[in-house]
Design brief:
It is built from nine helices and 16 strands. It is an alpha/beta fold. It folds into two domains: 155 residues, Rossmann fold; 125 residues, 3-Layer(aba) Sandwich (Rossmann fold). Strand 3 and strand 4 form a beta hairpin. The longest helix is centred in the N-terminal third of the chain and has 16 residues. It is elongated, with a radius of gyration of 21 Å. The chain starts with a strand and ends with a helix.
Length: 305
């Protein structure tokens, strides 16, 4: 069987290489020529013959430039005769802007989905795969013939939790909003689940009113799908520690770690390790003694089957 040809945006070269290394010959690297012009415009040329070939395109919508680069490459693949197109977006930007709360707000998650829905169809069809979306309803924003796929990094998360949590641990959520997913994951691992109960003091302030499980003298593994500034995670870790947890590990799928997030977490001596996947380019840039990165390369390859 002819290998699938892999292209990637510039920010995701690191993950593309991991996918190639793990593909056992299923995937081969495509080549491109890329230049930036002084006026801010960008030049892309696909230098591999892709006519009647199956294409895997890897890139995240981490910022507007990366989003347009991914769109341009996808359009180019269609223009030059790709037989099929699988787009993998490991980190789907604006995932927390999935609905309008105030009048006039633009639902950016939907506008991004519609953008990729406008890519013309290849003869073998177009697929867009996203990993551990913040809201399960996001795939429904895609329209037309494109097929959205929600990939779950559950096996990667489970392996990390069991590696660091030991034989008996509590799998914990940062708040009740993620409790259902964490409970499902905990049940798979025959572990106890916990979440924090909060009460709203004002429009911008909340306070912890309780924890639903006994964590005293237990190892607590906190899972959150995304860590940005780390503020919510830090507050959750403090709450579990005050409730008696002896040590805490943190696992996240999408590690953005902005605004010195890792340093904030590292300031808590009872947090022993932060584990994340490599869905976001920041994990390839940041070097921190608290951080350990697990790859989703195998999960990405699974969409070929």
């Amino acid at each position: 069987m002819e290998p699938v040809i892999l292209f990637h945006t510039q920010a995701y070269q690191y993950l593309a290489q991991r996918v190639l290394d793990a593909s056992a010959g299923q995937i081969t690297a495509g080549t491109t020529e890329i230049k930036d012009f002084p006026d801010g415009e960008h030049y892309h040329r696909i230098t591999t013959d892709i006519h009647n070939k199956d294409i895997l395109l890897l890139g995240g919508t981490t910022d507007d430039r990366s989003t347009l680069e991914l769109l341009d490459l996808a359009m180019g693949c269609v223009q030059y005769g790709a037989r099929s197109l699988r787009i993998v977006i490991p980190y789907f930007g604006y995932a927390t802007m999935e609905r309008a709360v105030k009048k006039g707000e633009i639902v950016k998650a939907k506008t991004r989905a519609l953008l990729f829905s406008a890519i013309p169809q290849t003869p073998g069809g177009n697929t867009v795969a996203m990993i551990d979306l913040h809201a399960d309803g996001l795939p429904y924003y895609f329209e037309g013939g494109i097929k959205p796929v929600h990939l779950y990094a559950k096996e990667v998360i489970k392996a990390a939790a069991q590696e660091f949590g030991g034989s008996s641990f509590v799998l914990a959520a940062t708040d009740a909003g993620r409790a259902k997913w964490v409970e499902s994951l905990a049940n798979d691992m025959h572990a106890d689940a916990a979440f924090i109960i909060k009460r709203r003091i004002s429009g911008s302030e909340t306070a912890v009113s309780g924890i639903n499980a006994d964590v005293k003298d237990r190892t607590v593994v906190i899972y959150d799908d995304m860590i940005r500034t780390g503020s919510s995670l830090v507050e959750a870790a403090k709450s579990y520690y005050k409730a008696g947890a002896k040590e805490i590990y943190v696992i996240t799928t999408h590690g953005l770690f902005t605004n010195g997030a890792l340093d904030k977490i590292a300031a808590l001596p009872y947090v022993k390790k932060v584990i994340c996947t490599d869905t976001h380019p920041n994990t390839n840039i940041l070097q921190h003694p608290l951080l350990e990165v697990k790859t989703v390369a195998g999960l990405i390859i699974s969409i070929l089957n």
